[in-house]
Amino acid sequence: MKLTGAEILWECLVKEGVEVVFGYPGGANMPIYDAMLNYPVHHVLVRHEQGAAHMADGYARASGRVGVAMATSGPGATNLVTGIATAMMDSSPVVFITGQVAAHLIGGDAFQEVDVTGITLPITKHNYLVTRADEVAEVVREAFYIARSGRPGPVLIDVCKNAQVEQTEFVYPKEVKLPGYRPVSHAPKESLEHAVKLIEKAKRPLILCGHGVLISGAEEALMQFAVKTQTPVASTLLGLGAFPASHPLSLGMMGMHGEVHTNLAIQNSDLILAFGMRFDDRVTGNLKAYAPHARKIHVEIDPSEVHKNVAADIPLIGDLNTVLTDLIPLVDEYDHDEWLKQISDWKTEADTRSIMNWPNDDKLYVPHLVSDIWKATGGNAIITTDVGQHQMWAAQYYALEKPNRWITSGGAGTMGFGLPSAIGAWFANKDQEIWVIAGDGGFQMTAAELTTAVQEGANVKVAIMNNNFLGMVRQWQEFFFEKRYSAVDMLTPDFVKLAEAHGVPARIVTTREEVDKAIEWARKTQGPVVIEFRVEREDGVYPMVPTGASLDQMIQRPVRVED
Amino acid sequence: MQYTFIALVENKPGVLNRVASLFRRRNFNIESLAVGRTENPEISHMTMVVDCPNGEVDAHKLEANLYKLVNVIDVQDVTHQPSVTRDLALIKVKAGPERRAEVNGLAEIFRARIVDVAADSVIIEVTGTEDKIEGMIELLRPIGIVGMVRTGQIAMMRGVNDGVRRIPGGNGNRYEEDVYEMAEMTP
What angle do CA B82, B85, B89 make, to 5 degrees? Predict the structure, then answer.
């Protein structure tokens, strides 16, 4: 039977198991939107294409499936760009489908024509320009396969308008033919044996758990390996949740705003086992002084990440879960009591400065608020964030026990990510409690998606940590620019009225007494809710490793002098 | 230092752009790039000569990133591998009838050929390694070079390819034997 290119597109999406797409129609994708009405796929109309990109990303991260976002040509497609880059940096499997002007008009500067495949070339795992209807099926099949396999990432399909309306015979390709794309799974046996030799000799081993653990579904294998070899586990920002925070071997987050004892452990370790992480500069600090005493075993699916920032003594290239499953039977049981005791002593010392020990001074501090939300939700909610101070505090104080509940823009650091990614996550798991921890700056960037949340009935709770500052930039100006505050003092709208104008119930909280009640109110109210917390304006995120410093040169929270 | 890479890529529109864009994105400068078909019309062969200021580290980075491109079927750093490399140059030299014999003599020494003769100039075709062509250019320069075009290097591995796609950095430990000695640490 002959179908139009647009119909073939939907046939393929349905075959890929797509149930929801996030998008925005326009001139160049109208045939796609017309054909959509005949297919059992729910469409979420966003208020800005960036929102669609983040929603598809949030959906993908919460579900482990491929998210789909759509936009029209030209400005519709360029509005996706920030979201595509965000998905690329965090290895999130999203397929973007954009309309394009008819093939015969390409290159002629037609209305709403933009070279979208050109623009997105460096920020996609792969992209396609489809000029004929008979290319659609093969391209969609390949795009989904590429997006979710190996190291996942965004794939963009730019579909010319003529390819959407032309008719052709629909044949669903049985298999993908990609001679240059064969993700590896097993690491070579001899490399594993080399790794075992190092693990046997290590006195102060340390696992660095990255996003790859979650992507590969290696949580179980990680637990087995860590317990069997008694190796403590530190986590990157995106690796949080892969290893339960309450486990005795868990060290929490590493890096620029990582725990003191965790960073000290890295600097004193003699063997680093890097599992699915890429030694980002926010994780390593000064590379020259990074983990100076440690041999490094790097388990990674993407060969271009090996030796990129930190040279690996033993690279194990393969799928993390497969490699760990191969490795576990080869290692013996060890104990590293002395090393664990040392780390625990560092922790005890650092904890004396913790803000959690501060008495109530009637001010609101974000760490306390995050901790209150954590208590109220039993540490079980999906948390999405924007980018900045509140993001780091959420990472530090929302102690995750379970995987795939932490959705944040790590690599790209995209403000405005919180609300839309939460709406996407809600579509992945509608029974799950979802909280957005946002800053006043980031929230304003995509606040228009509140209406989308109302239209869809998305049950997301938004906590805006309002300090009337672009807090992280302010903190850097305080530390590194002699407190010369430049363009960070931010007037915010009345968030309660703003929310209510969108039809969202909202409250403002200014004292500690109101906090628990407000959180309970939000949890009991069905649908989207906004709470604005008026927090201490000039609090800082601690500890902090200044840019260019080594990990053991941390600025710690000043000791509080009682009045 | 200059490194030479061979890549087999799918013969599709935009693939050259993907490769070139990668060099730009990762901040490398291409010294020469030659692309052509192979015996299989669906596959093109690329030879790239690239300046790698950080030596092996850069070479690995490039090889691994090329490997990641979906349209790249195979890639290899042949800088230290047994391979044959050739460059072809067309050199136009200012030479009236009185100097043709001299030019002809030089061409013979370099096993080059004169492929065109005009009233006041000749075009010489020379193939060989980069060194050889550079050598010839030096000798022709005093006579008067009025134009030159070069293909850039093309390279081919010796022997029969085993068909196995190599994973950059994936084939075991590439560092010294002492990797098993745990570093001594002062407490």
Answer: 170
Tens digit of each residue's pLDDT (9 = 90 or more) over A252-286: 999 999 999 999 999 999 999 999 999 999 999 99
Query: Is the pLDDT confidence value at A456 over 60?
Result: yes
**What CA–CA distance (Å, rounded) separates A219 from A261?**
23
* pTM passes above 0.90: yes
* Contacts B179 to A, Cβ<8 Å: 194, 198, 295, 313-314
Cβ within 8 Å, pair B170-A180: no
CA angle A245–A248–A251, rounded 5-degree value: 55
The Cα–Cα gap between A267 and A291 comes to: 4
Q: Which two tokens stand for residue A61?
A: 């991260």
Angle at A297 between CA A294 and CA A298, to 5 degrees: 125
For residue B64, what is the nearest residue in chain A, using CA coordinates?
A: A304
pLDDT of B174 > 50? The answer is no
Task: Tell me the CATH number of domain B2-81, given options 3.40.50.1820, 3.30.70.260, 3.10.50.40, 2.130.10.10.
Answer: 3.30.70.260
Q: What is the pLDDT of residue B181?
A: 54
User: Is there a cis peptide before residue A543, judged by omega within 30 degrees of 0?
Assistant: yes
Per CB-CB distance under 8 Å, the chain A contacts of B57 are 307, 311
Contact B183 A201 (CB under 8 A): no
- Between chain A and chain B, the number of residue pairs with CB atoms below 8 A apart is 97
3-state DSSP call for residue A313?
coil
Closest CB to A303 among B9, B25, B167: B167
Phi, psi of A275 (to 5 degrees): -110, 105
Taking the C-alpha atoms of residue A74 and residue A412, their distance in angstroms, rounded to an integer, is: 23
> Mapping DSSP to helix (H, G, I), strand (E, B) and coil, where does residue A102 land?
coil
Alpha-carbon distance of A120 to A409, in angstroms, equals 19
Closest CA to B66 of B20, B101, B34, B35: B20
β-pairing verdict for B154-157 and A167-169: unpaired
Q: Which residues of A197-229 are buried (b: 16+ CB within 10 A; e: fewer)?
A: ebbeebebbbbbbbbbbbbbebbebbbebbeeb
What residue spans in chain B does CATH classification 3.30.70.260 cover?
2-81
Q: Does residue B184 surpass a pLDDT of 50? A: no
| Interface predicted TM-score of the whole assembly (ipTM), two decimals | 0.91
Residues 6+ apart with CB under 8 A from A403: A214, A219, A241, A242
Q: How close B187 gets to chain A, by Cα (Å)?
A: 8
CB A433 within 8 A of CB A382: yes
Q: Which of A184, A197, A203 sits opposite B167 (nearest CB)?
A: A184
List of chain B residues whose C-beta atoms are within 8 Å of the C-beta of residue A179:
10, 73
For residues B28 and B62, the answer to whether their CB atoms sit within 8 Å is yes
Fold classified for B84-150: Alpha-Beta Plaits (3.30.70)
Residue A249 DSSP code: T
Can you list the domains of chain A with their CATH numbers? 2-169 (3.40.50.970), 190-349 (3.40.50.1220), 354-534 (3.40.50.970)
β-strands B83-94, B121-128 pairing: antiparallel
pLDDT at A1 (0 to 100): 84
Is the pLDDT assigned to residue A5 strictly greater than 90?
Answer: yes
Q: Which of A169, A174, A167, A171 is nearest to A35 (CA)?
A: A167
Dist. CA B172–CA A205, nearest whole Å? 21
Specify whether the CB–CB gap between A388 and A358 falls below 8 A: no
User: Tokens 């024509």 — which residue?
Assistant: A113
Cα torsion A91, A92, A94, A99: sign: negative
Looking at the partner chain, which of A122, A190, A295 has a beta carbon nearest the beta carbon of B25?
A122
> What is the rounded distance in angstroms from the CA atom of residue A539 to the CA atom of residue A367?
10
Q: Which residues of A323-338 are buried (b: 16+ CB within 10 A; e: fewer)?
A: bbbbbeeebeeeebee
Given the structure tokens 């060194």, which residue do they identify? B131
